[in-house]
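Fill in residues.
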């Protein structure tokens, strides 16, 4: 069950829109058998009437058909390094790691994508669009066009969700090589929100800084190990004059800071990158111990992805959308879309025409 609170009334919301994003999460080169089990669908249970939100919490139900497989047998005691197995078993006193491993599974990100789709729908009402693309898989790096020139339809078609069609085959070969070796690969993913108004977030509350909130949200995705706002990872070898986005009479020609300054959105697209580690479940398992006996064993293996970078972008979009929708409603408020629009348009009339990003 997914519950989304804080959505104003009169937002048009249908299950197909949410299903579209759930479907995007299930695709991608390198995914394993889990995705063959079912096509995710979020059944709207509450908060929507005749296609429009009511302002009350929106409840959505996503079935998990795999659940029946794990009810009795299939106990796991050969803990996997890099998963939630060992700390989960110790923390809760479990002897069957199944209890932790299923709950820590990225299966839960289906719920995030459903909630994120609601947030995206709200943001779209105000001209904000989110995208993502894969920057690298294993040792293969993309050389994507400038952000404004990316063909997002082509990215959607790409099996590796990559904006550089020249390296897509190499990325797939990297996934194949890892699979053949019984191994896994990770990658780097970029998430972009376009059309974000200036001034979301806060420079006066540490816990409302928009860059901090986005980092936390992206870092919370299973297997994410590093987050960068804009070109943050590249700035170590740059001087100040090479990094800041110069302000010309009401426009910026660069967006190295990734759309935030002082914890607030700056009016340029929001850009965040994250590293997703290679998956911990290896066909060629790593050394570990038996949870009950403490004897050395090979870690447990079961059906698993080889690379999860392509779907991780879709989850990243959802997480960024949730943070942005929150910050947006905090600034503009309102109980219905028309009321929020009045507030938004009143603010944009004072700042909007003065800002451009080219
Ligand atoms: C989209 C997605 C799919 C994943 N698929 C798998 C998988 O098939 N097998 C696996 O062992 N881990 C998979 N993971 C990673 C684990 O969920 C994650 O490593 C685990 O929860 C431990 O968390 P940590 O790596 O953040 O410490 C996936 C992660 C994501 C984002």
């Amino acid at each position: 069950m997914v519950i989304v609170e804080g959505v104003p009334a009169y937002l048009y919301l249908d299950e197909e829109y949410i299903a579209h994003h759930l479907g995007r999460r299930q695709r991608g080169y390198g995914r394993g058998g889990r995705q063959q089990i079912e096509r995710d669908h979020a059944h709207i249970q509450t908060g929507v009437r005749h296609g429009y939100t009511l302002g009350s919490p929106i409840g959505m139900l996503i079935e998990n058909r795999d659940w029946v497989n794990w009810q009795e047998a299939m106990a796991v005691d050969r803990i996997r390094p890099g998963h939630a197995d060992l700390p989960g078993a110790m923390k809760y006193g479990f002897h069957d790691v199944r209890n932790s491993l299923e709950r820590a599974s990225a299966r839960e990100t289906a719920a995030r994508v459903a909630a994120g789709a609601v947030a995206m729908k709200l943001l779209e009402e105000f001209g904000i669009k989110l995208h993502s693309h894969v920057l690298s898989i294993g040792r293969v790096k993309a050389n994507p066009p400038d952000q404004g020139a990316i063909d997002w339809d082509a990215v959607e078609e790409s099996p590796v969700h990559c904006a550089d069609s020249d390296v897509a085959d190499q990325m797939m070969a990297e996934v194949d090589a890892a699979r053949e070796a019984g191994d896994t690969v990770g990658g780097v993913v970029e998430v972009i929100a376009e059309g974000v108004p200036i001034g979301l977030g806060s420079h006066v509350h540490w816990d409302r800084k928009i860059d901090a909130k986005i980092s936390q949200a992206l870092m919370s995705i299973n297997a994410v190990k590093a987050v960068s706002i804009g070109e943050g990872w590249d700035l170590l070898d740059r001087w100040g004059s090479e990094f800041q986005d110069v302000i010309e009479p009401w426009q910026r020609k660069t967006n190295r800071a990734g759309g935030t300054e002082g914890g607030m959105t700056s009016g340029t697209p929001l850009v965040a990158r994250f590293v997703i580690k290679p998956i911990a479940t290896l066909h060629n398992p790593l050394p570990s111990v038996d949870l009950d006996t403490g004897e050395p064993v090979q870690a447990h293996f079961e059906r698993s992805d080889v690379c999860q970078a392509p779907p991780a972008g879709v989850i990243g979009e959802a997480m960024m959308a949730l943070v942005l929708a929150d910050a947006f409603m905090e600034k503009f408020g309102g109980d219905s879309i028309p009321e929020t629009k009045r507030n938004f348009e009143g603010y944009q009339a004072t700042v909007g025409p003065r800002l451009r990003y080219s």
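The pocket of flavin mononucleotide is lined by residues 32, 83-84, 104-106, 109, 221-223, 277, 279-281, 304-305, 308, 311-312, 315 (CB under 6 Å).
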